[in-house]
Each structure stands twice: as structure tokens, then as C-alpha cells.
Write a structure and sequence with these properties.
The complex is a heterodimer of chains A (242) and B (120). Chain A has 242 residues and is α/β, with parallel strands linked by helices. Chain A is built from 8 helices and 5 strands, in the order βαβαβαβαβαααα. In chain A, helix 2 runs parallel beside helix 3. Classes of the chains: A alpha/beta (242), B mainly alpha (120).
Chain lengths: 242, 120
Amino acid sequence: MNAEAGRVLVVDDERLNRMVLRRALEADGRAVSEAPDGRVALEILDAEQVDVVLLDLVMPEMDGYQTLAALKANEALGHIPVIIISGVDELGSVVRCIEMGATDYLTKPFEPALLRARIQSSLAAKRLRDLEREYLEQVAKVTGAAEALERGEPDFAGLADVGARTDALGLLARRFASMAAEVKAREERLRAEVRELRIEIDQARQAKKVSEITETDFFRDLRSRATTLRQAVRGDEPPAVD
Amino acid sequence: MTDLTPAVDPEGFDRLLAMTGNDPVFLAELVGTYLEDADSQLEAMRAAAERGSADDMIRPAHSLKGNSLNVGAEQLAELCRQLEADGRSGTVDRARERVSAAAAEFRRVKSELTRLGGAG
């Protein structure tokens, strides 16, 4: 199987149709999953990465309309292209399905060239849509990082994959991450300087307090008495008695 | 009266061959599946006609129509299309007659597909 050729989910209650479509799709290198009704199709879509759905309309359990409606209502699956399988006498139903969001249709009996062209065109549309979704997700990562920086909670972990892009968005992400890193480093340097200044201010404040005390007459008197006492203790001369 | 129109349209059969990648083994498997399913679909159509049940006619007629188109059995597909339309409109007055015609056409299709080497 060729990953570029994509995976196609064939949803049809007729095993003959599934067999024919599987063979033709596999001949083009595509991976194929099969479902006999809509319910099983939705289970497969939840579990597997599917690129295109080929959907029959008349089925037991959950028919093509119900399946299409459920698929389009699902945020995670709604972007997957759906090609309706119909009879030539069911074109009214096809119109209804296209209004509901189906991408294209294929009539029975299947024409190999038409099947190939429609799958290819749906795959190309899906790839474009996938690229657009990825781009928008990555733009959201850059704007999210900018908002986090503004809140003072810098978080650039999500920017690594955006920065790996070779286009303008990648360049923007790399420049933003590098500018944000510079801002962060500058902030840290400023914080360290503020810490040092605070210590100096504290020391000056302490010195001022000390000088305020030591330069009073009371302190000078105390110091003089202390000197006298020290001399008396050492026996230089008897202390004066008041 | 003998129907001279081919039961299996050569162009339709060529299209089926192209879809199978001209693989005779897979072709035989496909035709075998078609014949097996057609038997049970015709049986369900016959039962719906007997009961006069329009609703029960729709699905087997729709299935046999689509499968017949895939193997190039265009007349049979057309008979099934009429039966399906009758079922959808709720008018199955001519259902017995049309199911008999479909069964007769299916015998021609089966014989032709067997001749073409699809199934033994």
C-alpha cells in the first residue's frame, strides 16, 4: 500500500459492490476498509484514519443519508470527503446528498477511470483542507504563545514544530521564539540587578539607622561611660563615683 | 418468443473485466457471488410479490438492479428498476408478472455469465 494513495472506506451493504470497489482501489495502491452499513462505518471512522468515504444510499440499519448527516455533524469527521454511490435513476438523491455536504457522486456500474478521477480529486481536496487545518492550528500556537507572554507566563514548548516549517509562518515562529527568549533573558538580568540594588538599599538603610543611633549625645555619653568602665576593669584608674 | 438481445452487454462485461484487472480467478469469484446473491434476491422479490408487499420489494429489487448493472446484465437491471419503482410507489399489481420476467431473464444471464467463463 502507498500512504500517499490514501485509505478509502467503502460503505455498501452489497458485498459484490464492495468486492469490485476494493479490487479497483487496491489496484491503484490505496488502502481499503469496508462497512456493510452506516453504523459500522461510523465505528471504523472513529478508529481509523480515513481519507475518502464511498457511501451507498440504500442500506439496512443506518442508510446513506443518516450516515452522511452523522458524519457531517461530527467535528472530527466532517472534513472527510464523501462520494455518494448511486444508480443513474437516483440523481435526485445525489442532489440532496450534495446539499448535505457530500463532495461528489459515482454511478453504478462503476467506471474505473471515473472512480480513479473522483477519488484523486477528493484526496487532493482533503490534503489541501488538512494543510489548511494544520496551518490554522499552528497560527493559533504562535498567537497563544504571544498571549501567554503578555500574561507573563511564557510558554514556547508548542512552537518547536511551527518553527520547523520552511515558510513565512515558520520564520515568524522562530523570530518570535528568539525575541521572546531575549526578552526573558533581559527580564532575568533586570531581576538580578533589582535584587542586588535591594541588598544595597537595605545595607544603606541599616548604616543610616546605625549612624542615627551612634551620632546622638546619649550614645556618645554611653560610649564614654563604657570606655571609663573598661579602663577601670583593666585597673588603669578607679572609676569615678557619681 | 426468443429474446435476441444479449443477456450480458459485452461493453458492460468488459467494464467489469477492467475493474477486476482482467484477473480470471477474481472474475469467477465475483460472478459466483453475483449468482448466489441474485438467487436470494429473486426469492425475496417473489415472496414480496406473493404477499403484495410493496415495502418488501424495494430492497431486493434495488440490490439486484445494482449488482446486475455491475456484471453488464442490463435488461435484468431494468426489470428490477421497474420493480423497485413499483415498490416505492406502493403499486405492486404487476409484481408477480415482473418477478417472473426477472427470473426468466436471470436464467439467461446465468447461462451467459457461465459461458463467458465467469463461474463454473
